[in-house]
Amino acid sequence: MKNFDLDRENINNLTSLWKLMGIVNNQELNAKGIYRSLDWPHRYWQEWNMQATLKERFDNTPFDRKNLVLPVFQNNTTENIQDYSDKENLGLSLMFEQQAMYLNMQDYTPQQQQQQQQQQLNVTKLIGEKHTRVWCDIASQAFNYPINASSVIRANQHPDVTLLMADIQGQPVATAMLHKTGHVTGIHQMGVPEHFRSKGIARSMMHEVLDLAKRELACHYTVLQASDAGEGLYRSLGFKAQFMIKNYFFTN
């Protein structure tokens, strides 16, 4: 894999999924590698290797920008031109942080889970609007924010996107979305609603996801962007840290 940069591939996987969910067409900004979501996930981002500054992104934000989230990818070659003091001066406030992570699939061996969990957890690939809307309801409960179904339906029409939902005896208990780009498969929206947590469901779901990625997608790496709540689980499965993603919102 000549010229393979796993940091770049992690972000390219994420941002290409955002594009599949729908972007505002702006030829001038898109030519600079700057994009904005049509709807959820409400991101306003710059491609990994582009040279636009935070101020340039700020100056081109729409008038109604209160719902937009602006991610800054650390360890980016452009980070040295994005002075940290600029963020406060531009009216940006830190919203949340994520840890970018990867797993070399050569190091992953499918795990034998507890017999009871194997019998209980049923993971299904979802197609069609009806099932996708159910997935969005469960994922919204898991992440405690509304997920717009139209964005997910749009992305799920792409052949490199796989929407997964787990149930126990017909009761949905977990969600995940896989997106393959080249040798990399990204794991997105891996969540369990609060009232189903602390039962081993998240770990079982991750094993199912990783087994599928290795067996069917034949990827070399899986990547994700972890919250504080999920990072410990991912590390225990062999994922390694890459860099931080700092997500800001507009205060004015």
Q: Which key terms come to mind for this protein?
A:
8-stranded mixed beta sheet; single chain; 252 residues; Aminopeptidase; 9 helices; alpha+beta
What portion of the residues fall into strands of 2 or more residues? 25-35%
Kindly report the CATH topology of the largest domain: Aminopeptidase
* Total beta-strand segments: 10
Query: Which residues sit in consecutive blocks of at least 5 with pLDDT less than 50?
Result: 77-81, 113-119
> In CATH, what is the homologous superfamily of the largest domain?
Gcn5-related N-acetyltransferase (GNAT)
Cα gyration radius (Å): 18 Å
Shape descriptor: globular
Distance linking N and C termini:
44 Å
Total discrete domains: 2
CATH class designation of the largest domain: Alpha Beta
Q: What is the overall number of helices?
A: 9
Mean pLDDT: 89
How many strands, what sense, and barrel or not for the largest sheet?
8 strands, mixed
Commentary on this structure:
The protein is of the alpha+beta class and 252 residues long. It folds into two domains: 6-99 and 246-250, no CATH class; 104-243, Gcn5-related N-acetyltransferase (GNAT) (Aminopeptidase, 3-Layer(aba) Sandwich), CATH 3.40.630.30. It contains nine helices and ten strands. The chain has helices spanning 6-21, 27-31, 54-59, 84-89, 115-120, 129-143, 149-156, 201-217, 228-236, and strands spanning 34-36, 44-46, 69-73, 92-104, 121-125, 161-168, 171-181, 184-191, 221-226, 240-250. The strands form two sheets. The protein has an eight-stranded mixed sheet, sandwiched between helices. α6 packs across α7. The longest helix is centred in the last third of the chain and has 17 residues, at 201-217. It starts with 5 loop residues before the first helix and ends with a strand.
